[in-house]
């Protein structure tokens, strides 16, 4: 009878184990479309054998552990590429704004430059005409307004980038705290000998999001805690403690710092990755470069026009007058043209002050001709016309946007390939799970049949005794 009791226990463990494995397969199937979910697998172990009348008799099977399929190398690659994709994707919108700003379109800066010199060309036909002189001043004012608008819109793009960066900080801090909380849960669960599979999947997803945002670096300790730090080495998460990232714009410059219990440590923004790196590159490198080229364009225009206009004589007989206000004189080491685009303004208040000729004679158009010719002269670095230099700025923005579009597409393809590879190795395969269901369903049915057989044998023995 004792042997039948052992057999009965073996059947019971087999029945419950097969049921548990079927439940695991069902959970895998239920999460087939869950982002970041890793396939779970039962590790089956036999119960220790017992000595029964000189023979070692097994006592059945048990689920020793439930583990998740995991590939550390793939996870590391996905995290790394998440930073690259986040960087390229974040630059898409501000670059589109810059493309719109520097496009060669009617009503744009290049059109106003042409219109300004065309007005001087029209003045050459009637140097003393009040209407033509009015148009020259109006075109000069419209040109100045176009420079001001370009500078203002560049500042607007910078403000949009700052707002975008600041808006991301709360989400980053929330994810950092969630990682710290998951560290506590995972270390506690695994210290008790169990596996925290679902929590690990959730934490991996958070690491990918953080990498996409700021390009974090992570390292797991022997207790299962993930330590997170910025690319420059500044720690953000240590076991169950998350530090807080703070940011503010001071004098048009974004300042980031890490707050740890009231103690703040500045963050070197040049070491950041992900979306922060992409946005900061546009704001701190590309836009200042474009502003510098725009200032240089305005400075060249103002100085060349003033140089000629000051040699002419207006209708009042006055000479030495500037057409535009003199460019500002920035303190070294700034370039001499810094701020010229924002400062450009027409200095004349009356059409009579326009110096069309070297003398005030009614038909003298000498200066008007010379200024009109500036429109086609290579006066920017001796290699470009004013419109040509502006077209070069526009082409640079277009090239940056085009290259970023290619980089975004390439990184997206790489992410898709890595994700597909991950899904193939550690994701849920419905075909495999169906096979497992059939296998363990048969095992469950066999266990039930086995228990039924043992029950019949026990009934038979009891009948004999009666």
Give a short synopsis of this structure.
This protein is of the alpha+beta class and 466 residues long. The protein contains ten helices and eleven strands.
Describe the fold and architecture.
The chain has helices at residues 2-30, 72-101, 109-125, 130-191, 197-214, 274-309, 340-343, 366-374, 386-426, 430-465; strands at residues 40-46, 50-52, 55-57, 61-68, 217-220, 226-229, 235-238, 241-242, 244-250, 253-260, 263-266. β6 (226-229) and β7 (235-238) form a beta hairpin. By secondary structure, it is α+β, with helices and mostly antiparallel strands. It has a four-stranded antiparallel β-sheet with strand order 5-6-7-8, with helices on one face. A three-stranded antiparallel β-sheet has the order 9-10-11. α2 (72-101) runs parallel beside α5, α3 runs antiparallel to α4 and α4 packs antiparallel against α5.
Which secondary structure elements does this structure contain, and how are they paired or packed?
Layout: H1 2-30, E1 40-46, E2 50-52, E3 55-57, E4 61-68, H2 72-101, H3 109-125, H4 130-191, H5 197-214, E5 217-220, E6 226-229, E7 235-238, E8 241-242, E9 244-250, E10 253-260, E11 263-266, H6 274-309, H7 340-343, H8 366-374, H9 386-426, H10 430-465
Antiparallel strand pairs: 1-4, 2-3, 5-6, 6-7, 7-8, 9-10, 10-11
